[in-house]
């Protein structure tokens, strides 16, 4: 494969930028910050984890309702970048605002977190759709995997800085509280996200589009309705989205709730941060490996591999008791979380009509987001009914099994078919 083009590299760098949000806000520092605030307010561990799950579900529901409409409108010439920029600015500004919310206002923290999640996920809808504009079908698996790999590598830098500030504050080495250190981490995330998004804003442009027409909003609704009516023409897309709906639900739930889960098991904040850091480092080469193996064995086979590993993760989580167990669980997740997301994105991009990329990535997002509602709710309800977070994580195994079964019926894109000897 030739070296990445300027446009491909600029697109990849947004993963480098946005992944700081994914690890510091979605996964590591903010959940711990919120859990501490909720605990100080007298909220039980199981209930605070459940409230976080409900919050994630609300945020994803809002975006899921908006995505296909926004995506369809953004297929018009020149609008994809504008929508991306709006959600990008919403995300970084609300992330920075987290630093100015009093630490005892745990409910206000969840509300602001909802806005940050909408900004981040909304920008990702259009970022993912830009893949068809910057690359070719033959290069998409590796370019998409490179993006996730860069994301894991890039996110470790602000993460290390944030961890160092928090640990030094806990030890008294620097004269600030742990609360202040966490708020500094939120500011670092916003700055990192903003600065390294510049290459995409400058160099990536919409190549495939629909010509502008009067009443774009009304016509966008008509196009969505027409797509639903013609869904039989896109059987492969529909089946893939259905499979994706189930298995990506489990993936996103494990990523977003892993820190709260570890906290409920009694793992210290310092250990959790270190484990998450190592997970990012290990995940980077495995994301690239998935992309290369997909070129040899097809993306579909490698998706099977990733789903199977996540089934093992869910089963193992049920018996998890010690910090060592959590380490093993985290390393299993690290081997596949980037690969399964990268190949899902590129597999879908190979199936969509390019001039309707935003519209179809809107559906891709709505399936992923509605799935992300079900997973956290499943964990939250199970945790509250049983009083045991382990049971909640174990319940996710059903989603992976159903997703794997449906994926078996998804046709392989023609370019991935291997010649028979």
TrEMBL record:
Membrane-topology annotation of the record: Multi-pass membrane protein
Do you know which InterPro entries this protein is assigned to? Answer: Atg22-like, ATG22/LtaA_families, MFS_dom, MFS_trans_sf
Principal location class: membrane
Q: Which PROSITE patterns match?
A: MFS
Entry keyword annotation includes NADP? no
Entry keywords, A to Z: Membrane, Transmembrane, Transmembrane helix, Transport
Membrane-spanning residues: 12-34, 54-76, 83-101, 107-127, 148-168, 180-201, 236-255, 267-289, 301-320, 326-348, 360-381, 393-412
Q: Where in the cell does this protein reside?
A: Cell membrane
Instruction: Give the protein name, as stated in the record.
Output: MFS transporter
């Amino acid at each position: 494969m030739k070296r990445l083009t300027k446009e491909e590299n600029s697109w990849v760098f947004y993963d480098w930028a946005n992944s700081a949000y994914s690890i510091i806000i979605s996964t590591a520092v903010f959940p711990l910050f919120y859990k501490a605030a909720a605990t100080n307010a007298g909220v039980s561990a199981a209930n605070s984890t459940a409230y976080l799950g409900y919050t994630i579900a609300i945020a994803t529901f809002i975006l899921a309702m908006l995505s296909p409409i926004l995506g369809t409108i953004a297929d018009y010439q020149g609008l994809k970048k504008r929508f991306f920029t709006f959600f990008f600015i919403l995300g970084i500004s609300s992330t920075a605002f987290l630093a100015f919310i009093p630490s005892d206002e745990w409910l206000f923290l969840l509300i602001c977190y909802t806005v940050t999640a909408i900004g981040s996920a909304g920008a990702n809808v259009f970022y993912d759709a830009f893949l068809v504009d910057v690359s070719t079908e033959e290069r998409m698996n590796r370019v998409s995997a490179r993006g996730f790999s860069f994301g894991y590598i890039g996110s470790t830098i602000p993460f290390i800085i944030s961890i160092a500030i928090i640990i030094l504050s806990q030890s008294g080495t620097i004269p600030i509280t742990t609360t202040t250190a966490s708020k500094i981490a939120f500011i670092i995330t916003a700055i990192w996200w903003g600065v390294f998004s510049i290459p995409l804003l400058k160099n990536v442009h919409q190549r495939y589009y629909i010509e502008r027409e009067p009443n774009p909003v009304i016509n966008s609704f008509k196009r969505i309705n027409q797509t639903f009516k013609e869904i039989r023409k896109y059987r492969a897309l529909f089946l893939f989205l259905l499979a994706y709906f189930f298995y990506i639900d489990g993936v996103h739930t494990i990523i977003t709730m892993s820190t709260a889960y570890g906290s409920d098991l009694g793992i210290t904040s310092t250990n959790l941060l270190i484990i998450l850091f190592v997970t990012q480092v290990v995940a980077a080469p495995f994301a690239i490996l998935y992309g290369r193996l997909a070129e040899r064995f097809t993306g579909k086979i490698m998706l099977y591999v990733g789903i199977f590993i996540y089934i093992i993760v869910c089963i193992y989580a049920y018996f998890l008791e010690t910090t060592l167990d959590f380490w093993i669980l985290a390393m299993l997740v690290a081997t596949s979380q980037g690969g399964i997301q990268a190949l899902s994105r590129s597999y879908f991009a190979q199936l969509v009509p390019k001039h309707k990329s935003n519209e179809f990535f809107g559906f891709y997002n709505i399936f992923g987001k509605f799935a992300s509602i079900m997973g956290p709710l499943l964990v939250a309800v199970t945790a509250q009914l049983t009083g045991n977070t382990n049971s909640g994580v174990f319940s996710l195994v059903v989603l992976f099994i159903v997703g794997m079964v449906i994926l078996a019926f998804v046709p392989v894109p023609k370019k991935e078919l291997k010649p028979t000897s």
